[in-house]
Amino acid sequence: MQIFLPIADVPVDLFVLLILGAAVGFLSGVFGIGGGFLMTPLLIFLGIPAAVAVATEANQIAASSFSGVLAHLKRRAVDFKMGNILVVGGLLGSAVGVEVFRIVKSYGQIDLFVSLCYILFLGSIGTLMFLESLSTIQRSRKSVNTFNHKKKHNWIHGLPFKTRFKSSNLYISAIPPVVIGFIIGILASIMGVGGGFILIPAMIYILGMPTKVVIGTSLYQITFITAFTTFMHATQNKTVDLLLALILIVGGVLGAQLGARVTVKLKAEEIRILLAIIVLLVCLKLALDLMMTPNDLFSITYSNES
Amino acid sequence: MRALIFSVIFIFSMSSFSLGAVISDIDKTDIELSTRFDGTSLLVFGALSPENDNTSLLVEVIGPSTSVDITKKVQIWGIWVNKKIAQFQDIPSFYKISISNPEHPILKEIEYQKLKSIFYDFLETNSTPEDDNGVEQYYHELTRLKKKLGKLSIFEEKINIIDKKLFSYKVTLPKKIHPGKYKIKMTLIDQQGIELSKSEQSVKVSKVGVQEFLSSNSKNNPVFYGLFSVIIALFLGFSAAQLFRWLYR
């Protein structure tokens, strides 16, 4: 069934969108990821303008992360103080990101910009994840366990503005969480991702937060940042397609519930390697689209509509 | 519908009118762009009183104006980048022209004059054309791309003429069209292209329902639209959490 998206200004098939939303939701349920970094490129592949894909995806993530954080609130698995500091950095980052987005869009190069950001991020993260899981698998074959996540004193502990985070049982500077939050804000506004794939490792390895509050706190921050980013994109760039977001939210919720209830008989590192392969494939497709000679060198755009 | 059309045509054809005249009507005056809009067609019909056998009927369909950028992909460091090469200010987003007599002696000239007065005169370039064809290249790309999108057709569609007196013409509109006023101009011309008589109809194309609510608020009330989008998303997130908590109790 074909429907016309009012802001993206393109006709799309409703069922294709629902299935896409459900498929990405399913993967996010299985892998425990947000899925924004898969959904935004897939929307672009469907012919939705990159600017609309990014802003709308931020809107979808606001829904899914809010739904997620509610469960963690019940279990008291959110460090509010840490979350709020991350949010402060995130709001700043998002405001900066949306402004950069607006400027690049006014030059008519937003599609290229979003693609390049994705290639850079998916390329490096996919490769890192792939190599790391590969070496973990090799290590486990030799049955030598070299894992060592002992808390160390590092440069983080030398920074000023130290504050106590009770829920995380930490006494560290407020600067690193602000900076991390800022980076997540930029990522959310430019790429339409929640940024969990950066935020969670950063919370564990840089801030040294205990695993039990990491997911809840990251969802707490992501809810605020994506909601703010949606609002900023709507007011600055007018690129949020609410109809598209609604379809993706419905598809995504169903898919994620299904995905979370499927027992995957795979080891953690095997799951990660699968995920890395998906990430690299999306990256490859984006790169090929930029490098292959287009069918038609010329195109027309309606300039007074944007 | 058919009966209505033919009775209208019958009444029109009965009435007497001066030499070389055209009168017309249209089967709808409003087109609603809903979320399910998948293109449509409309029927223009009417009666002619040709002065002699040498008159021809021109039908033009002219959509609302927009500005159009022509971009060309250029390769920079192995990557294809869009480069804006020309702009046409306020040209019709949709244009169709048809003629009852495709053998008209000055058809090519009419075509050029029409395209010039509608499209070519509104070219604004900021770059000097690199191609030997100069600005002709921009004209060519504009018409080629518009034709490809189904938004331009020049003497491709047939006007049905019955008994040299009645005509009907079906206009198909693609699924992606601009809202606004669409004018349909009927002109009776002679062999030299001189106008003998004119008649004009118009159709209002407007967004309706969800389509209208979202696109107008996004444009005109962005603060409301932004808050609304966020609230809807949070509400749906909350509902989903409640729903599944209840389901898996």
Descriptive notes:
- The complex is a heterodimer of chains A (306) and B (249).
- By secondary structure, chain A is mainly alpha-helical.
- Chain A has one domain (2-143, 155-291).
- Chain A contains ten helices and five strands, in the order ββαααααββαααααβ.
- Chain A has helices spanning 14-31, 36-45, 50-74, 80-106, 110-141, 175-191, 196-206, 211-236, 242-260, 268-291, and strands at residues 2-5, 10-13, 162-165, 170-173, 298-302.
- In chain A, the strands form two sheets. A two-stranded antiparallel ribbon of chain A has the order 1-2. A two-stranded antiparallel ribbon of chain A has the order 3-4.
- In chain A, β1 (2-5) and β2 (10-13) form a beta hairpin.
- The radius of gyration of chain A is 20 Å and the shape is globular.
- With 249 residues, chain B is α+β, with helices and mostly antiparallel strands.
- Chain B folds into two domains: 2-207, Sandwich (Immunoglobulin-like); 209-249.
- Chain B is built from five helices and 13 strands.
- In chain B, α4 (209-220) crosses α5 (222-247).
- Chain B starts with a helix and ends with a helix.
- At the A-B interface, β1, α3, α8, α9 and β5 of A face β5, β6, α3, α4 and α5 of B.
Instruction: Please indicate the count of domains of chain B.
Output: 2
Q: Count structural domains of chain A.
A: 1
- Average pLDDT score of chain B: 81
Number of helical elements of chain B: 5
Biggest interface goes to:
A-B, 58 and 56 residues
Distance N terminus to C terminus of chain B?
58 Å
Distance between the termini of chain A: 27 Å
